[in-house]
Automatic annotation (TrEMBL):
HpcH/HpaI aldolase/citrate lyase domain boundaries: 18-243
Family annotation (PANTHER family): 2-KETO-3-DEOXY-L-RHAMNONATE ALDOLASE (PTHR30502), 5-KETO-4-DEOXY-D-GLUCARATE ALDOLASE (PTHR30502:SF4)
Cofactor(s) demanded: a divalent metal cation
Protein name: 2,4-dihydroxyhept-2-ene-1,7-dioic acid aldolase
Gene: hpaI1
Biological classification of the source: Bacteria, Pseudomonadati, Pseudomonadota, Alphaproteobacteria, Hyphomicrobiales
Length: 255
């Protein structure tokens, strides 16, 4: 068997704009529905969603064959957690709350085998397709994508050093937590937050790395961030889509 290519990583490094969606609903039925919707990438969220490893395994399988690529958001920058998601075949990670270059290096090291990192070895995991991918251990890193989240003012001040860390394929700016760190909780589109995100995206690009962000329900702002340099841009959250559209439908008939 061949090592699966990572189209998300390849498009990211080619500078191709990729439109994504957050999948907070912990269901492989939902992830397959969303995988056919037309997005380039889908975040399988295990930080802010009641989603665990066995279910993410099912979600990864549900997306096989669809063009949309899974990006697993782990709950923390933790090598043990990353190891388990690596072994089920995850090839793209979104790692939250990375504060500086040291934490970015730790995130990358968790995805690499020695001597490049500390990833634990398993002889027959889904990642290697149970030993059927002959060159997995020599080529896996080519198709491994590490996205780190910068989502505090402190981390945003260090975005250039984070961008320079080898193996960091992209930097996602988290509007929600960033706004909270700015004293603007639940105001991710506050003008000061928008200005900070735009500046961060420009600096990430100037540092030679690739920026991404999430915007919910505001196409103009999403396109403003794309103009500022976002090349992996999430434009919605499934749970919010379900909640708002179901409310609207009920209101049509219930008033
Ligand atoms: O800080 C943020 O904003 C993010 O990291 C995205 C949110 O966590 C995501 O759950 C959407 O609310």
């Amino acid at each position: 068997m061949q090592l699966p290519e990572n189209p998300f990583k390849r498009a990211l490094h080619a500078g191709t704009q990729q439109i994504g969606l957050w999948c907070a609903v912990p269901s492989n039925y939902v992830s397959e529905i969303l995988a056919g919707a037309g997005f380039d990438w889908l975040v399988l969220d295990t930080e802010h969603a009641p989603n665990e490893l066995p279910n993410v395994f099912n979600q990864l399988q549900s997306m096989v064959g669809y063009g949309t690529q899974p990006v697993v958001r782990v709950p923390w920058n933790d090598a043990v957690t990353l190891k388990r998601f690596l072994d089920i075949g995850t090839q793209s990670f979104l790692i939250p709350m990375v504060q500086d270059a040291e934490e970015a290096r730790a995130a990358v090291a968790a995805t690499r085998y020695p001597p490049d990192g500390i990833r634990g070895y398993a002889v027959a995991s889904r990642a290697t397709r149970f030993g059927r991918i002959g060159d997995y251990f020599t080529r896996y890193a080519d198709e491994m994508c590490v996205l780190v989240q910068v989502e505090t003012m402190e981390a945003l001040e260090k975005v250039e050093e984070i961008a320079a860390v080898p193996g960091v394929d992209g930097i996602f700016i988290g509007p929600g937590d960033l706004s909270a760190s700015m004293g603007l909780l639940h105001q991710p589109t506050h003008p000061r937050v928008v200005e900070a995100i735009e500046d961060g995206l420009r600096r990430i690009t100037a540092a030679g790395n690739r920026g991404g962000v999430l915007v919910v329900g505001d196409e103009a702002l999403a396109r403003r961030y794309m103009a500022a340099g976002s090349v992996f841009t999430a434009v919605g959250v499934d749970a919010a889509l379900f909640a708002r559209s179901s409310e609207a439908l009920a209101k049509q008939y219930k008033g």
